[in-house]
Amino acid sequence: MKRFIILFFIIALSSACSVKREVAEVWNYVQEQPDSALFVLNSLNASSYAGRTLANYQLLKAMALDKNYIDVASDSLAKPAYEFFHRHGPKEKEMMSLYYLGMSQYYSKNYNNAVVSLDYVSNLAEQCENPRYIALSQIYLSHIYHRRYNFTEAISAAQRSIPFFESLPDSSYQVRWARLHLADCFVGKRQFDDANDIYSSLAGLFPSDSALIRQVLPHFAWSMLLSGEENALEAFNIYQKAFKVYHAKLDCYNLHHYGMTLLSLGKEEAASAIIHELEDFTDYPELQHDLKFRLLKKRGDYKAALGEYELLTGRQNEVAREMMYSSLYKYQRDFQRLSLENTQLQFKVERERMLIIQAIILLFVIIIGWFAVFWWRRAKREKEQLVSSIKDMTISLAQYQEQNTHLEDELELVRQKYVGAYKKQFQKIASLVEYYRTTSGRSDGRDLVYKQVMELSSTVGKDRESMRALERNVNAALDNAMSKYREAFSGKSLEHYDLVCYFMAGFPASLIELLTGIPKSTLYSKKSRLLDELAASHSPYKDLLYRSIK
Fold it and tell me: Rounded to an integer, what distance in angstroms lies between the CA atom of residue 507 and that of residue 456?
C-alpha cells in the first residue's frame, strides 16, 4: 500500500513538472511566434491547472490571443492572471497581465478603466525597468486620449513612447507607427506644420514600406486640407498618389476626409458617392451625417443640413457633444438668417413672377372669352340646324312607318288571297276526283273528268320542281311547317317527305292515291303512324306539325 501511494505521488509530481515545463517553453517564443504559441496552448488541457501554473497559462494565452487579434475585448484570461500575480508576484508578470487586461478594456471601449490600468502598467514597467511595456502603455494611452479629444495628453503620451521604442532592438516598425500617431495628434491640436513635417519624413524615408505609406499619405492629405482650403488641390493629388501608386484602401475615417477634400474642390457628385460608400460603415454613422451636412450646406439646403448636424451631434460622446452644441446654435442662427434672406428673395421673385403670370392669365382669359363667344354662337347655329334636322327626320320616319304599315297590310291580304285561291284549287281537284269516282260508266265522261283532274294536279305534280313549289306554298301557308318537319325528323326518304307535304297541303286520300299510286287504306295507316310518331316526339314544333298534318 505504501509503495502504491509513493508511486502515485511520483507520477503526479512528474506530470506536474511536465505541465510546468510545457508552459515555460511557450514563454520562449510567444513574442516572436504568437500563432505557434497559441496552437500549443490550445492543445494543452488546462482544466487540471491551478495556482501559478494556471496563472502562467492564462497570461500566455491572453498574450497570444492579443498578438493574433483574437477575442481581444475579453478579460476572462487577463483578469484572473492579474489577480493572482498581484497577490503573489512577481511584479514583472503582474505588469504584463495588467497590460493585457488594460488592452481588453481598450478594445471593449471601456476607456476610463483602460486609462487607469495602462497608467499603472507604465509605473510598474518603470519599476521593472522594462522599456517595451512603458512604450506600449504610453502609446495606447495616447490613442485613448486622442479618441477623447484630449490632444495635449495624447501628444505628451506619444512623445514619451517614442524614445522607449527606439531603445528596443529591431523596433523601427513600432517607431514609425508611433510617429504616425504623434502626427495625427498634432493634427487634432491643429499644429499642422509639426504634423506635416512628420508625414513628409515618413513618406520620404521609407519608400519601400508600402503598408506604412498607404496609411501616411491619406493622413498627410487630410492634414494639408485642414491647414487651409487653398491646399485642397495638393491634398487631392496626395490622395490620388495613394490610390494609383500604392493602391491604398481607405477606412471609414479616411474615406470621410477624402469626401471633404472633394467638397472643397467643388466635386459634389463624387462627394455624394462617398456618402453612399459610408453607409456600409454602420458602426460610424456620424461620419456619413457630417459629410452629408457639409454637402447640403454647400448646396444651400440649410434646413436639411441642420437636421443632419443635429443627428451628428447626437452621435458624439459627452465631450464632443458639448463642443458641438455651440456650433449647432451658431449654425441654427446662421441658417435662420440665410433662410430669411432666401425667403425674402424668393418672395420678391415670386411677386414679379405672379405679376407676369397675372398678365398672361388676363390675356389668356380675353382670348378664351372671344373664342367662347365665337364657339357659343357657332354651337347655337349648329344646335338649331340639328333640331330642324331631327324634326324633319321624325316626320320622314313617321311617314315611312305609315307606308310600311300599309305595305304589310297589303302583303297580308295578298298572302290570304293566295292561300284562299290555293285551297279553292285543292277543293276543286277534290270535287273532280270524287265526281270521277262516282260518275257513270261512260268512258268518254270518265276520260273527260280524268283529263281535267290531271290538268289541275299538274301544278302539284310528282316532279321535283312541282314538289319544291308545293313545299314553298305549304311553308308560306303553314308557318314553315314543312321546313320544321325536315329539321325535326331528318334522314327520311324523299317519298316520305313528299307524302307529308301532301298531307300538310290538305290533299284528300283519293287525290294522293291518284298522284302517288298508294292505296287509300295504306295512306290512312301511314298517316296514323305519322301522327303517333309526332305525338311521341320531343320536338319543339310538335303541336304545329300535328295540326298541319291532321
Answer: 13
Q: Nearest to residue 291, comparing CAs of 320, 331, 254, 326?
A: 254
Residue type, 330: K
Residue 412, all three cell numbers: 297580308
Rounded CA-CA distance 71/104 in Å is 9
Q: Residues with Cβ < 8 Å from 145, sequence gap 6 or more?
A: 151, 153, 154, 157
pLDDT in tens, the chain (550 residues): 333 333 333 333 334 445 556 676 777 777 778 888 888 888 888 788 888 989 888 888 888 888 888 877 888 889 999 999 999 989 999 999 999 999 999 988 899 999 999 999 999 999 989 999 999 999 999 999 998 889 999 999 999 999 998 898 888 888 888 988 899 899 888 888 888 888 888 877 655 566 777 778 888 877 887 888 788 888 888 888 878 877 777 887 788 888 888 888 888 888 888 888 888 877 778 777 777 888 877 777 767 777 776 776 665 555 455 555 455 556 566 666 666 666 777 777 777 777 888 888 888 788 888 878 877 887 778 777 777 777 777 777 677 677 767 666 665 665 555 555 555 665 666 566 556 556 545 455 545 555 555 555 555 545 677 778 778 878 887 788 888 888 888 888 888 888 888 888 777 777 787 777 788 888 888 888 888 888 888 888 888 888 888 7
Cell, residue 309: 448636424
Contacts within 8 Å (CB) and 24+ apart, 426-429: 426/505, 426/506, 426/507, 428/456, 429/453, 429/456, 429/457, 429/507, 429/511
Cα separation of the two ends of the chain: 138
Element spanning 220, H or E? helix 210-226
Q: Write the DSSP symbol of residue 231.
A: G
56 C-beta neighbours (distance < 10 Å), count: 22
Report the alpha-carbon distance of residue 439 to residue 457 in Å, rounded. Answer: 19
Radius of gyration for the chain, computed over Cα atoms and rounded to the nearest angstrom: 60
Give the separation between CA 453 and CA 487, rounded to whole angstroms: 33
DSSP string of 513-535? HHHH---HHHHHHHHHHHHHHHH
pTM, entire model:
0.53
**What does the alpha-carbon distance between residue 499 and residue 549 come to, in Å, rounded to a whole number?**
10
Question: Which grid cell sits at 121?
Answer: 502598467
Number of other CB atoms surrounding residue 460 within 10 Å = 21
Q: How far apart are CA 542 and CA 550, in angstroms?
A: 12
Q: How far apart are CA 47 and CA 49, in angstroms?
A: 6
Identify the CA nearest to 254 among candidates 216, 289, 207: 216
Quote the CA–CA distance of 214 and 249 in Å, as a whole number: 8
Could you tell me the three cell numbers for 513?
Answer: 292515291
